[in-house]
Design brief:
Blueprint (H helix, E strand, L loop, with lengths): L11 E8 L6 H4 L3 H13 L3 E7 L3 E8 L7 H22 L3 H9 L3 H5 L12 E4 L3 H13 L20 H6 L5
Amino acid sequence: MSVRKEITEYSGIYFITFTCCQWLPLFENCNGYDSIYKWFDYLKKKGHYITGYVIMPNHIHALLAFRNTQGQSINAIIGNGKRFIAYELIAKLKEQANEDILNKLSSSVKKHERLRGKLHEVFEPSFDWKECSSDKFLQQKLNYIHENPCRGKWNLVQQSQDYMHSSAQYYISGNQGI
């Protein structure tokens, strides 16, 4: 399910995925991982929980437990988070004078959005979500998240707990990560 379908609940645990525009490895290219951690801190201050996560070079998977959204939709919370992160990533890319990536992100903005003042498309416009309505499904998604850096084209680490930008280390050894 994508963002085009409104999450009608105001609490619960959700498996959320969002991706950088054109699958560009923006988090890696501008060392933007800290922008995600700042957003996580903001969510925690608002009373939500980060149940599990992995920040890959070009996308993020997270198990987010929302509670007391104070009437704000979960879709809006995710949208605002993506916007906050996007501003930080663009600032980092400008600081690095990374014109190649900035131009790619600029050329990805749709005409009607450009007319409204949008300069860069940092993320794909939608996000995927699934409600975690059972412990079995929650565990399945947590395992998927933690194994992501070890599989497929990534093979970033051999052991999931060795990937720095993941909650796997906490679940396996009890040591708090970043």
